[in-house]
Design a protein that fits this description.
The complex is a heterodimer of chains A (161) and B (184). Chain A is mainly alpha-helical. Chain A is built from six helices and no strands. The radius of gyration of chain A is 59 Å and the shape is rod-shaped. Chain B is built from nine helices and two strands; from the N terminus they run ααααβαααααβ. Chain B is elongated, with a radius of gyration of 18 Å. Classes of the chains: A mainly alpha (161), B mainly alpha (184).
């Protein structure tokens, strides 16, 4: 089925009969205009946003990079210091374990004192305890020779009187 | 008016260029829309949707001459109208491959008032009117119509034949002399 003369005539008649449509172009444009996307502005906005995003990401990466380097350095420094500190502690401990003259002297002095005390009183701790349990008349047992001598003189004086 | 410049302006989103183009083609495109959708309000909505799609996709359009621009706009409007009719389930075309060629007598046709012919065409059922408009007025081939409507070429031909028979019947009913010569 092909186009024939009648079809062309029909087309001509239809097109001539079609009245020029009475439309309010301004009114329709006002309805259409807000719906049309603002391509140019959007594109510029998009580019600006894209550039801004790239810059922010780049800055972020730089910050992360330098922070990690700094943190890494701090980490190394921290553990190096810790090593140094632990060595220092170890040295101190070793030094403390080594015999010190002063300490030895003190110990010797203490030993000497203890021995002297032992010579003076075989059991000083017992003597102190007995202070509260012994009969007062037996106190003389623990008085010194000088005190005993004083006591003898007092007795003689009493006898003479 | 330099249409190439107007199109270039539309491509950059220039409002003035877009308005110029709308003012230039809106009336013709309104006629196209009304050919498929006789309701004035619906036709106006389709016109706006069609222009909106044109402005959205104008970047892809390569301007050759005025007729290429008009053809592209017309294609957009027709597609919009067909989509609208399809959504409303108004395109009811029964597939059939048998058709008889109908030839209308040009001499008789020329004697009939154009306004009457248009009225008769507007009173055709949607399916017949669409195929008739696409073939006779827009000049599409049956294979193109078949592709646009999703039907076979034979169905497109049979729809056109039925449209012409209905046209003849309506013209006869209105008391107009109309000779038909059946063939095939």
């Amino acid at each position: 089925m092909k186009r024939d003369g009648a079809d062309d005539l029909l087309k001509e008649k239809v097109l001539s009969a079609e009245e020029e449509s009475i439309i309010d172009t301004e009114f329709l444009w006002n309805k259409l205009e807000p719906l049309i996307p603002v391509k140019q502005k959007r594109t510029i906005k998009f580019y600006y946003k894209g550039i801004a995003a790239v810059l922010i990401i780049a800055a972020g990466l730089l910050v992360i990079r330098y922070t990690s380097i700094k943190e890494g350095n701090n980490y190394i420094a921290k553990y190096t210091n810790a090593d140094i500190t632990s060595k220092a502690i170890q040295n101190t401990i070793n030094e403390l374990h080594e015999p010190d003259d002063t300490t030895t002297k003190t110990i010797d002095k203490n030993k000497e004192i203890t021995q002297r005390i032992a010579q003076i009183s075989p059991s000083p701790s017992l003597a102190e305890d007995e202070m509260f349990t012994q009969d007062p008349s037996t106190f003389g047992l623990y008085t010194s020779v000088e005190d005993e001598q004083d006591d003898d003189l007092d007795n003689e004086q009493l006898n003479n009187n | 008016m330099n249409h190439a410049l107007t199109i270039a302006g539309c491509k950059t989103g220039n409002r003035l260029a877009q308005k110029q183009l709308f003012e230039l083609y809106s009336k013709n495109m309104m006629l196209v829309c009304r050919r498929y959708v006789p309701n004035n309000h619906d036709a106006e909505e389709l016109l706006l949707t069609g222009f909106l799609k044109f402005f959205e996709s104008v970047g892809k359009f390569v301007y050759k001459n005025d007729s290429s621009l008009c053809a592209w706009l017309k294609q957009i409007m027709i597609n919009e109208c067909l989509m609208f009719l399809r959504k409303q389930n108004r395109i009811k075309i029964v597939e059939e491959n048998q058709c008889t060629d109908v030839e209308l007598d040009a001499d008789t046709l020329s004697s009939i008032n154009a306004k009457h012919i248009l009225d008769v065409i507007n009173n055709l059922p949607d399916g017949y009117r669409i195929v008739f408009n696409l073939f006779v007025i827009e000049g599409y081939s049956h294979s193109e119509i078949a592709q646009m409507l999703g039907i076979s070429t034979g169905t497109s031909k049979s729809q056109l034949m039925r449209a012409k028979v209905s046209l003849q019947k309506l013209l006869t009913d209105k008391g107009m002399l109309y000779e038909t010569r059946w063939s095939g």
